[in-house]
Amino acid sequence: MITIFGIPGPLLFGQLLLGLINGAFYAMLSLGLAIIFGMLNIINFAHGALFMMGAFVAWMLLNYLGIGYFPALILAPVIVGIFGLICEKTIISPLYKLDHLYGLLLTFGMALVIEGLFRNAYGSSGMPYRIPDVFQGATDLGFMFLPNYRGWVVIAALIVCLATWAIIEKTFIGARLRAATENAPLVQAFGVNVPRLITLTYGAGVALAAFAGVLAAPIYSVNPNMGSNFIITVFAVVVIGGMGSILGSIVTGFALGVIEGLTKVFYPQGSATVIFLVMVIVLIVRPRGLFGKAA
Questions:
Q1: Overall domain count for the chain
Q2: Rg (Cα) of the chain, in Å, rounded?
Q3: Does 46 map to a domain?
């Protein structure tokens, strides 16, 4: 058996895989948070609840309408994204000119309401969501067996994250979005409908969370608490990467997932706190985050 630093190879690589999977969800969720904060200056504490909502929508599409996994990857983000658009237009937009604290409190209340509604309807015990047939089984890599679905999650997350980065950084739409972030009145003067752009941005960030929820449904049981298990860690990822930084969210999300996985191998007691320890160190050395811009 292969050993690395005295650790059995299958155990080490297995934890690395788990770290990559967690990192994939950290990256997608923190990416949505970074987009929303960068454009709207709203700290969206409801993001974890919307992640959970995406998983539940996929579960309901399958169990009530017989709509399978791959259509749900498209339909669930669209449905939850539309819900996000309605929330933004009705209850979030009046807070844009107020202090960040008001948006944080509002979205925290939204998260409690959404989770409470699903808990009352479906209870707290998890409900299974079957892995699609095409991803059943595992692939022998020689040094470990890679579950096919978990490999798909990492690949899908990378594709979505890099595509989002490319749209924001390399396209005309992204240029408008970044310009509106810097100087919304000036962009409005050039004929860009900034309020509509803001609304669509919020919907896109919410859709990213819902997409991550659909990917998570076969791995974690679909339950009302699945988002709250991620959200605090995801906020730490956003802070470490730099508030509003797209690239920072992606790189930091995957990197911290791997660090967390390795910590479970070499020092299991510290695996629950290692990300927050990294956050403290980064904030001391570089308060704006690893990829954050100077004020």
A1: 1
A2: 19
A3: yes
